Amino acid sequence: MASLLYYVLCTAKGDVICYYGNKGQPEPVFLNPGIYGLSNCLLDTPWKKLQYGKQLFTEVINRSQDLAKEDLVQELLTVMNNQEPQLPDPAIEDQGKEYIRPILNKYAAVCVRCPGYGTRTNTVLLIDSEGNVTFTERTMINEDVSQWKTSTYEFKLHM
User: Fold this and answer.
1) Alpha-carbon Rg for the chain in angstroms
2) Whether residue 18 is found in the same domain as residue 94
3) Same domain, 41 and 66
4) Residue 133: which domain range?
5) Span 47-90, pLDDT tens digits
6) Number of domains forming the structure of the chain
7) Are 120 and 134 contained in the same domain?
8) Which residues, if any, are the signal sequence (predicted)?
9) Cα(157)–Cα(159) distance, integer angstroms
10) 90 & 66 share domain
């Protein structure tokens, strides 16, 4: 499954955010303001792990005004690394049948950690109202869940 999110700032219609997946709708979907979830399937697939991730994300966002930028990034990384299985979930169980069943307890979590399969990278992208961008990426090194590299880049958008 491949997905693309794109964001165009300051068009005649205002900011535009679109989603396109290689399965599902044949044309890009224009997104209204709100909170969406993207896992290893289509946007807002009704899996319990995706709904749980959106709930955790919303809780962090609701507190975000009281957090320093670095703390906000860390809390968002914590959300993306939550390994609590969200079971039972018939929708996710039917998705992969024989492939998923042996790893279902791990696959049904926001963060999947299985030998040879799972979450390898997390990205947090913050853009403030002045166009200041903080891009933080946490990447697993050598397929070893105990080794991670975190890189942060800051720049300003030219609007």
Assistant:
1) 17
2) no
3) yes
4) 36-156
5) 999 999 999 999 999 999 999 999 999 999 999 999 999 999 99
6) 2
7) yes
8) none
9) 6
10) yes
